[in-house]
Design a protein that fits this description.
12% strand, 14 helices, binds 5'-deoxyadenosine, six-stranded parallel β-sheet, 348 residues, alpha/beta
Amino acid sequence: MKNNIELAKKLICEKTLSKDEFVSLIDGRCEETEELLKSEAVRLRKEIYGNSVYIRGLIEISNICKNDCLYCGIRKSNKNCERYRLAPDEIYECCDEGYELGMRTFVLQGGEDGFYSDKIICETVKNIKNKYPDCAVTLSLGERSKESYKKLYDAGADRYLLRHETANKEHYEKLHPKEMSYENRIKCLYDLKDIGFQTGCGFMVGSPFQTTENIAEDLLFIKEFSPDMCGIGPFIPHCDTVFGDNPPGSVNLCLFLLSVIRILKPNVLLPATTALGTLHPQGREMGILSGANVVMPNLSPKSVRKKYALYDNKLCDGAESAQSIEILKKRMSDIGYEVVTDVGHIKK
Ligand code: 5AD
């Protein structure tokens, strides 16, 4: 087996590795390989996106969810979660505010809430796109039928985020109730791509039962699926879930994987996630400096933010909040990057 530096160089040259090689690269990582991959990741992102940081206004439209994912704070069985949903008019107000702040992508994210029929989402998307034709709408509303996805796409939605969560079926089943299936998750992702959405997958780093082999499988899945976006962040326990006492994922490993993913797919839209910012005060900056090129400030109404608690202590103010965009801009410019007012599509 090659040593770690050789594996890192091979990854840079060939833009992928075998599963065993990924496992060795990850388990054997040292400062030298971290720096090597980080500088290549940053070189690639600068070649394609310069020093621009794309921002997305994240609107958390509902924390009502029919699913019971074992790790998630808004899981159906969490009786301590105070539920809410936004009406379309409240969503439009968020968009108005975000537009003023320079956002040109709105992400409508929520639990799998039956209230949001195709009709309601389509109407909401159409209204946003009519008012702001220069903006993209991203949906992140979980698993739906292909017919439903097609309607949302035809209504004008540009992108869809659906993390695959893990590319290993056995691992998937340890994180999800039996009503959910790995096969359907993956089918949804291929349906979305087939319909024409800019499609995003992703996974948690350090989720319960995750092995290095599982991470290698995630990386190979990403290579094969070739997503337009990829969301990864550390797992963070939520006290009202089965995994409330589990340790959080590693920030260092998450940063390393951001660099690896940038190298696997150089033009991918890669966010420095809220979870990363939650676990480390400089998480977002470190994410950008590891190859990420997107941040997603919280644009939800202040009154509901604390209720959309996927995990404990989730950041929702300071530089995390859309209203504090100036703080975010300053923090990005301090590390040599520029928050831009741009729809921020993937560059092909
Ligand atoms: N820690 C970190 N991320 C989480 N998510 C859900 N629960 C947690 C948690 N406890 C992530 C999932 C989901 C996304 C919206 O948030 O990956 O797809």
